[in-house]
Specification:
There is one protein chain. The chain is an alpha+beta fold and 357 residues long. The protein is built from eight helices and 20 strands. A six-stranded mixed sheet has the order 11-12-13-10-4-14, with helices on both faces. The chain has a six-stranded antiparallel barrel with strand order 15-18-17-16-19-20. The chain has a five-stranded antiparallel sheet with strand order 6-7-8-5-9, with helices on one face. The chain starts with 7 loop residues before the first strand and ends with a strand. The relative contact order is 0.15.
């Protein structure tokens, strides 16, 4: 499905229009920026519950007896640490250690995995993985245009939708999932994951059932004051948590070590660029960090970071106003040996403001 501007549309595009969403181009898709206000939607997720259509995300299936070993080699986390029914956050890296993409891997069984990748990287990831499938007994499926993904987030997320399934949602551990009946539809994958930092679940549904399930969730969620939310609030929510966004905070020019993702980089296994990343861990020159501004200013991507002498020492990669902290917040990179937590300034319209780390 395409709109008049050649952008892809999720199966819920018409529902978003009916709900009054402001649509914008995002990762090649026409996506809802907001329905009412990003401020209201942000607060709903922090204090009550909101629902996001994130069906633009890429969805791959890799299955076969060599699937585990291949993913072990292509990604930096240790897939052996999870069992069937668990998910893992990880990265694909290139031969120089740069981040091709960050993704979540769901272990369906010993020989089958679901990969959720960033929409902007679907074709790139698919090509990279297929390059390594040659001569292996594997099946690779791109289900990105066949399945939808809904994210229900907030402290009331579980209680608001529990009546739609007999799966005890509160008993699913973080980064685990169950496959069962939801909203009268069989074989629905329900995962205790999210990109907001609030409690919540993500639900994977075949497109033919998506509108039906979306309507049911919103109808039953109305008792918990659930509202639909757009990518503006999803962005401010993830920045509050310090979560990285591909294309801004992480790229192929950035390694997981520089991106602050050493915690998912496991050197007790063989993987692409292991030696390079091991050396990078000892000699990292730049560092990502989170910050806020005491003054009433909002940081934006590209704002320069400076020291007391007005020398450029880094830049902002993501920034916004935090409705919860009521301050400007952001993420940025800085030259590691210039990291003096008491004297980092942001340049906004040629004026400097002190950052609080």
């Amino acid at each position: 499905m395409m709109d008049l501007n050649g952008l892809k549309k999720t199966i819920l595009y018409n529902k978003h229009i009916q709900l009054g969403a402001k649509m914008i181009p995002y990762s090649g898709f026409s996506m809802p920026l907001q329905y009412t206000s990003s401020l209201k939607e942000h607060i709903a997720v922090r204090k009550s519950v909101g629902i996001f259509d994130i069906s633009h995300m890429g969805k791959f299936i890799l299955k076969g007896k060599d699937s585990h070993n291949l993913l072990q080699y292509l990604t930096i986390n240790n897939l052996s640490n999870i069992k069937s029914g668990q998910a893992q956050y990880t990265c694909l890296v290139n031969t120089l250690g740069g981040i091709i993409d960050d993704l979540i891997i769901y272990k369906i069984s010993k020989i089958e995995f679901l990969l959720i990748v960033n929409a902007i990287n679907i074709e790139k990831d698919k090509k990279w993985i297929n390059n390594y499938i040659k001569n292996k007994k594997l099946t690779f499926l791109d289900l990105s245009q066949e399945y939808s993904l809904l994210s229900i987030q907030g402290p009331k997320s579980i209680s608001s939708i529990q009546k739609l399934t007999n799966i005890p949602l509160s008993k699913i551990p973080f980064y685990h999932f169950e496959i069962g009946k939801f909203s009268d539809i069989d074989k629905i994958l329900i995962s205790k994951t999210g990109y907001t930092g609030s409690k919540g679940v993500e639900i994977y549904i075949h497109n033919k059932y998506t509108e039906y399930v979306w309507n049911n969730i919103l109808n039953i969620g109305s008792f918990s004051n659930m509202i639909p939310c757009g990518i503006a609030s999803r962005n401010s929510l993830r920045i509050e948590m310090g979560y990285r966004l591909y294309g801004q905070d992480i790229t192929e020019r950035i390694t997981p070590i520089e991106a602050g993702l050493s915690w998912i980089t496991k050197f007790n296994k063989k993987f692409i660029a292991k030696k390079i990343l091991k050396n990078k861990k000892l000699k990292v020159h730049i560092k990502i960090f989170s910050f806020f501004i005491e003054e009433n200013k909002i940081p934006r991507q590209g704002n320069l970071l400076k020291n007391k002498k007005n020398s450029i020492i880094g830049k902002v990669t993501s920034g916004c106003f935090s409705p919860i902290l009521k301050k400007g917040i952001g993420l940025g990179f800085i030259i590691k040996n210039k990291l003096d937590k008491k004297s980092i300034f942001i340049s906004i319209r040629e004026k400097k403001f002190l950052l609080i780390l």
